[in-house]
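Bit of a strange request maybe. I'm writing a small parser for C-alpha cell strings and I need a real example to test against, not something I typed by hand. Could someone generate the C-alpha cells for this chain?
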Amino acid sequence: MAAAWLRHGGVETTHLTHILTFLGLEMIPASVHQGVSPLGASVLTSIDGSGNFDPAVSLGIENDEPGMKSARLILRRALDLAKLMRKSSGINMMICPLLPYLMKL
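Reply from user aminoacidic:
Good idea to test on real output. This should exercise your parser:
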C-alpha cells in the first residue's frame, strides 16, 4: 500500500518500487484492476487528496474509501494467490503463521 498526502504524490512510483523489490526477493506481487491503481493499493491521507489539513483527523486514510477498497481488493487477491500456491505445491504454512487467519477474511 502506498499513502500520499496529495492526489498525484508519487504513489505509482512507489508501487513500481514495491513490485521490483518483490521480484528481487522472489515474491509474487498481487494486483487487481478494480481499485484506484492497477499497480497496488493507493490511499490519500489528506481530504480528497487536496492537501488541506484538518487537525481533527488523526488518520486520514480511514476517510479515503476508494483507497481502503483498493487495499481490501489487493488483500483478497493476495490471499487467493496464497490459497492457489498452497493447493498446488503443499506450501508450508509455517512460512506465514497468520495465513490461516487471513484466509478467513
